[in-house]
Each structure stands twice: as structure tokens, then as C-alpha cells.
Amino acid sequence: MNFRLLPEWAKQDAVMLTWPHKETDWADNLARVEPVYLQLATHIVAQQQLIIVAHDINLKAHIQNRLQNANINLEKVHFVITPTNDTWARDHGPLSCGDINNPTSLKIHDFTFNGWGNKFASELDNKINSQLVTSLCTRAQYQQHSVVLEGGGIEINEHGVLLTTRECLLNPNRNPHLSQKDIENYLTEHLGASGFLWVDHGFLAGDDTDSHIDTLVRFAPNNTLVYVQCDEPEDEHYQALTAMENQLKHFTTLQNEPYQLIALPWPKAVFDSENNRLPATYANYLIINNVVLVPTYDDDNDELAVQQIQKAYPEHKIIAVNCLAIIEQFGSLHCITMQLPNGFLAGAQ
Fold first, then answer.
1. pTM for the model
2. Closest CA relative to residue 309, chosen from 321, 325, 298
3. How do 49-54 and 77-81 pair as beta strands?
4. pLDDT per position as a tens digit, 88-115
């Protein structure tokens, strides 16, 4: 069988959320952040199943109560109880590959998560996937990896082209023993990559991930790239993001044709209570069945961002989710979610 990492718009069984709790950095912000999680849960359950990772049995009971009060159908919610350090499901969650001849036949990859280069504790989060697979599906097609890789650090399209940034995947705080060629060979073998696009420029102030691609550039169907565009020359991001845009214009498909480019607007600067700039980006959206959930920030450009993303995914409904409470922890909507494709809950075999 020839397995390949599935693009985010492939049909899904569920989305995984790792719920915030008082022993995480969210402790002082739970009252503001939980309503965002409930809103996400509402939109997800309207389309598919929801998996919630809960730190302990008491948190599960609390979440169930909040879901019931929000009139969310608990029959579509599955709980996995296991201790957690934090909530960034995109980066500690599993990466699912489908057989190109039978996409519902899955192989689940559990890469090592080291807290974005040992910046933060990750020991508990690194055990979530094993518990997830044990609880909800067979381990027959489950593989653990010592190689460090976060889901937010890579994108893939329906042709198997893998998109990433050098700043993240080649950072010595991840896999210092691996060269670019080593990484390409490894991801070709295990994720079925058929080609690579390496982004050399672009960053977001306040970002702890070393320039995850899901904050900067995203794939859409039909050889389309959706990217953040900074149009303010006085902004600290202008030079790097303009260089990134110019590089994207020179990327070519496997057929040696240019990609269609769709630019996302630049939100106004967002700061926390200590005047740290936060990495607000419209690129951090989540694709689920029939819907794209787009982070917004009470910004004049929110509506334009929704319109641009609608161009990229014309067959999806676009729903805005205010993520100002989430961005205070230096991440956004895509960062706290992980999609699980069709076949995952059926056993992944």
C-alpha cells in the first residue's frame, strides 16, 4: 500500500481538541477562552464527530456540563482522558496518511513533539497520541517516530507536494542531526511526499513555533496557495513577508506551472497586557467537512479575510470565529485543533 498524508480538505471523521485547564498557561484566561472552545465544538459537531482530550476525570465532567449547557449533542463527542501540559493539538496531535488507492485505510504517525525546540514542557502532551489511538482505534497501523515534527509545521496538497519553512524544519532545536535531504527522504518515505516547497522568508512577532507554515501560507485545492500579505511598509513584518510573497510567485507545481495565489489581508497589530505583540494571522484557519472556520480579531479586515478564503474554498461555507482570547496565548484557531480523516474512528486499518 502507498500511504500519503491527506490534505486537510479530505473527508473527515472528527476534529480533536485538547481542552485548556487550570494547570496550563490558560489558567488566568479560562473564563474568556472556554467560550471559544464551545463555539468551535458547536461548529464541529454540526458537521462531524468531536474528540476532546481532557486532563482528568474532573475536567471531563466540567466539559460535559459546559457542552450540555451549550446544547451540544454529546452523542457526537468522544473523550480521551490523559494528563496534558497544554492545548496545542495541531502540534502534538497525530498525522494521518491514507492509502492513495483507498483513503479510508489509514496509517497514523506519532512524531515527537518537543515543545517547539524545548521551549516548553511537552512530556505529557507527547503521550496523548498513544492514548488516543488506544482508546478510539486499532494500533495496527500506528507508528511512533523519534523525529521531531509538528503538524503546524507542514502543509500538503492533493498531489503530495509538501510545503514548509526552513526556519522550522531545519532549525537545530528540532532534529540537529538531519540535513534538508535527510528530512526530505524521511518525509517522502513516511508521509508520501512527492515534492517539497521550502519557504525561506516570513515570520510573525510573538510566534514561539519558529515560523510554522500554518501561520503564513496554506494550500488550497487546484494548485492554490493562500498567504498572508503585509501592505504596511512601516510594519516590522513588511520586508520578510514581501520577500515571501515574491518567492511564492516563483514556486511551480509538479507540472512546472505557477501556483494560483490568494492574498490574505494584514490585521492591525494586537498586543497583550504586557505590550507583547501577538501573532494574529488569518492564515490559521481550520478546514472541516463542508466548512472553513476562520479566526477573526475584531479587525476592519476580518470580512475581507473571509471573502478571500471563500475564493480558495468555493465549495465550503466560511464561518468566522473570534479568536482574540486564543491569540493571547500566542496561537490561533488552527493551532488548537487537529482534523482526523475518514476511517480514523472506524479503526484505521
1. 0.97
2. 321
3. parallel
4. 999 999 999 998 888 678 999 999 999 9
**252 DSSP assignment:** B
The CATH homologous superfamily of the domain defined by 3-341? L-arginine/glycine Amidinotransferase; Chain A (3.75.10.10)
Rounded to an integer, the average pLDDT of 177-202 is: 97
| Separation between Cα atoms, residue 131 and residue 80, nearest integer Å | 7
HSE-up of residue 82 (Cα within 13 Å, Cβ side): 22
Judged against a pLDDT cut of 60, whether residue 348 lies above it is answered with no
Q: What are the residue boundaries of the structural domains of the chain, listed by start?
A: 3-341
The phi, psi pair for 230, rounded to 5°, reads -95, 120
Q: Which cell numbers in the block locate residue 263?
A: 492574498
Which of 90-104, 182-196, 335-349 shows the lowest per-residue confidence on average (mean pLDDT)?
Answer: 335-349
Q: What is the b/e burial string over 84-96, where b = at least 16 CB atoms within 10 angstroms of the residue's CB?
A: bbbbbbbbbbbbb
